[in-house]
Amino acid sequence: xxxxxxxxxxxxxxxxxxxxxxxxxxxxxRSYILFGxxxxxxxxxxxxxxGRAFLYQVSxxxxxxxxxxxxxxxxxxxxxxxxxxxxxxxNVLFAAAGAVFVYRKGGIGYLIEKVTGTExxxxxxxxxxxxxxxxxxxxxxxxxxxxxxxxSITANCPWHEIFDNCRIRNRGIGAESTIGALKRxxxxxxxxxxxxxxxxxxxxxxxxxxxxxIAENVRxxxxxxxxxxxxxxxxxxxxxxxxxxxxxxxxFSNETxxxxxxxxxxxxxxxxxxxxxxxxQLTAADxxxxxxxxxxxxxxxGRGYEVWAEGIVGYVxxx
Length: 319
Known about the structure:
Distance between the termini: 97 Å
Number of strands: 8
Low-confidence stretches: 1-6, 38-75, 116-122
Shape: globular
Radius of gyration: 35 Å
Strand content: 5-15%
Number of helices: 11
Structural class: alpha/beta
Mean pLDDT: 79
């Protein structure tokens, strides 16, 4: 067997089965050769190998015997099911751990971002976003204007009419995320507005972005603005909650909004921006958006915007 052309490999090294007196085992496929002689401890080897030990005494250093050691084959076969079950259990465990990791990082959007190497934009790739951005590209912002940036709850409100100030420029876009705002903040900051009101993050949560990433993007909005316009006063506004029934079954809750607002407050503090809590007056005792301030549980109605405006009027009119 050892002199044949078939591939031969060593199965057991010398001394691996000392209790049986086996010096060495060679293998070719399912055939084995044992060099050695049975010893008093052969019963222990029989136990170790699943009760199917077949030992052969080899006399003479040059004698070779080709035998089928069924005990090893059977042992491997008997181990298939336990190994399969163990492997399956480990795969399920790792898959579950991976799913939790991806979920905490932002869900499928995070996974897509990592696979493709691109930032998530989601709504920013829609026709609505492109249309609104193109409109804002042709509308000028003059030095000293007051600019509002946010998602649809910012975009829906005629802020210039509420405050009776024609210098206010609403640059909110429906479903806007912090990523989308970063794509257009430079052109806004270059105009050197006197004030910049930011309210962002809720759409990011819907897209699956983790709160630390949202906070980092808002911080980047602040620093990028100051690169072009260090004199601009920057105000970070808290995000408002939803009706509970609107987000039922989603992988986030109104508690997520509370966590987001705390992260944004920390950003405002560290970056010396003004923090404005507009959410408290619009939030019910149970943590959801107050019924009287919204029709759809997502956007403020007229009364809701009135309360919001009352909370920021001092900052808008402050010189």
